[in-house]
């Protein structure tokens, strides 16, 4: 198996792992205690803003900015354990490296939907 195929298999496996890694989410909750909900809300608002900026980067065919935003979203999502967002953001980074951000409207909308699922899962866990 080539390195590229192994990377794709790893990303596809992450898509099947669920919306949020339970252990990572609970570790973060324990670490931040009473500030956890504020941190989570800031993550959601910031991620929504990043998705809007990704849409603008796609429209402007700005691969550099698209890569940087996807990278930041991937990192923030990794802290939370948002497995689908990690995988999709990584995929967008790869497309930006290939100078194809202008062809990624569908992928960016998949990222937006994954964020909606993360927000719904967080709301369930916080209730």
CATH class: Mainly Alpha
Shape: elongated
Distance between the termini: 44 Å
What's the CATH topology name?
Four Helix Bundle (Hemerythrin (Met), subunit A)
Number of domains: 1
What is the tally of beta strands? 0
Low-confidence stretches: 4-17
Order of helices and strands: HHHHHH
Tell me the structural class. mainly alpha
In the CATH classification, which architecture applies?
Answer: Up-down Bundle
Can you tell me the CATH superfamily? HPT domain
Multimerization status: single chain
What's the story with the biggest beta sheet?
Answer: none
Can you give the mean pLDDT? 89
The share of residues in extended strands comes to under 5%
What helical percentage do the residues reach? Answer: over 70%
Pfam family, one: Hpt
Domain HPt: 32-127
Modified residues (Phosphohistidine): 71
Keywords: Phosphoprotein, Two-component regulatory system
């Amino acid at each position: 198996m080539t390195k590229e195929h192994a990377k794709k298999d790893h990303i596809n496996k992450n898509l099947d792992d669920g919306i949020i890694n339970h252990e990572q989410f609970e570790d973060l909750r324990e670490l931040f205690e009473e500030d956890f909900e504020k941190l989570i809300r800031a993550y959601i608002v910031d991620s929504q803003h990043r998705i809007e900026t990704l849409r603008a980067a796609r429209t402007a065919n700005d691969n550099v900015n698209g890569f940087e935003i996807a990278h930041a979203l991937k990192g923030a999502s990794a802290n939370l354990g948002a497995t689908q967002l990690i995988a999709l953001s990584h995929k967008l980074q790869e497309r930006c490296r290939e100078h194809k951000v202008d062809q990624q409207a569908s992928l960016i909308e998949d990222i937006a939907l994954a964020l909606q699922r993360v927000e719904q899962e967080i709301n369930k866990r916080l209730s």
